[in-house]
Amino acid sequence: MEFWKMNGAGNDFIIIDNRNLQISAEKIPELAEILCHRRFSIGADGFMVIENPSVGTEADFKMLFFNADGSLGAMCGNGARCISRYAYETGLSGINQHIETTAGLVLGERLDKTTYRVRLNNPTNIRQKLTFEYEGKTYDCTYMEIGDPGVPHLVVPLPELPELSDDELRPIALHFRNLSMFDKGVNINFYSKVDNDYYFEKTFEKGVEDFTYACGTGTASLVTTLALNGETSGKSVKVDMAGGQLLIQLKLDEGRVSNLYLTGPTNKVCVGEITDDNIAFLQNNVIK
After folding, report:
1. In Å, how far are 120, 189, 199, 216, 276 from 220, measured between CA atoms?
2. Predicted local confidence at residue 285, as pLDDT
3. DSSP state letter for 163
4. What are the angstrom distances between the C-alpha of 264 and each of 72, 113, 228, 243, 268?
5. pLDDT at position 89, please?
6. Which of 4, 5, 47, 273 measures 20 to 30 Å from 179, CA to CA?
């Protein structure tokens, strides 16, 4: 079984094309969990499966996204940028990509060999001015989803963020991550301002259950929040993360955000064959 290993600003993924493999749907979550387990297998934040698009869609292909724990995700921004490059380099699409996702249609575009831009799904279910307390400190947060059904994010301002280690930040992230009001779970996006239209961000991702080097839909949620609050122009907003820098563009019209674009680097790390001994159906030479 051939795979690609890619990353977008350090957010790393395993990609397989299931159109001919036809691995059954019930086996894919287990496959994702095994392969994404670092040190024991290839290791990744997420697992992406290419399928034929649904009948009647305008998509070139369908992208199914699974978190490292095997749970199904609605979409992934950096994953969509990486799979756009995969589609271009394997002939699935031209320089523009139409990607069917669980959250809706995502449009990709090749800017150069490694730089890809995607138009994300519009933000939905926005809840502003949420107030939470943790260990005596009050946090003013914004909740939203990218797409419908969408990827859930809680955006949390934290001016002291650059001075905090992951170990110091993790208890706060876990507190928010486990709040019962978020019945579908939630990704936590902490941020601080660097300069006008320039921010620093750390994301604690559900399904990975730890901090990741970057999060595309999280970065989009952050800039959407800032735009709704009148704190940013929404034009080429720079966001730094541990894995590098992403750019967000959006259109704000009468309090509604649209034309939400995510731009950043991709890296084709390797192409290889999956032979993991822990995947029983591979060893038995029975894919289905």
Report:
1. 8, 10, 12, 6, 35
2. 57
3. G
4. 24, 12, 23, 11, 14
5. 98
6. 47
**Cβ contacts of 38-43, under 8 Å, gap ≥ 24:** 40/278, 41/276, 41/278, 42/3, 42/5, 42/14, 42/274, 42/276, 43/12
Rounded Cα gap, residues 115 and 70, in angstroms: 28
The DSSP H or E segment spanning 233 is none
> Contact, 190 vs 158, CB < 8 A?
yes
Residues 6+ away with beta carbon under 8 Å from 182: 143, 152, 154
Q: Which of 226, 56, 246, 256 is nearest to 157 (CA)?
A: 226
Query: Which segments in the chain show pLDDT lower than 70?
Result: 283-288
Position 283 scores a pLDDT of 66
Distance between CA atoms of 219 and 221, rounded to whole angstroms?
5
pLDDT for 254: 85
Q: Which of 96, 115, 119, 116 is nearest to 106 (CA)?
A: 119
Q: Does 215 participate in catalysis according to the annotation? A: yes
Choosing from 36, 82, 141, 215, which is the catalytic residue?
215
Beta bridge partners of 195: 198
Q: What are phi and psi of 206, to 5 degrees?
A: -70, 150
Q: How far apart are CA 127 and CA 41, in angstroms?
A: 39
Residue with token string 């387990």:
37
List the structure tokens of 237. Answer: 């907003």
Establish whether 82 is a catalytic residue.
no
What is the separation of C-alpha 25 from the centre of its chain, rounded to a whole number of angstroms? 21
Type of residue found at 143:
Y
Could you give the residue ranges of the DSSP H alpha helices within 39-183? 77-90, 166-177
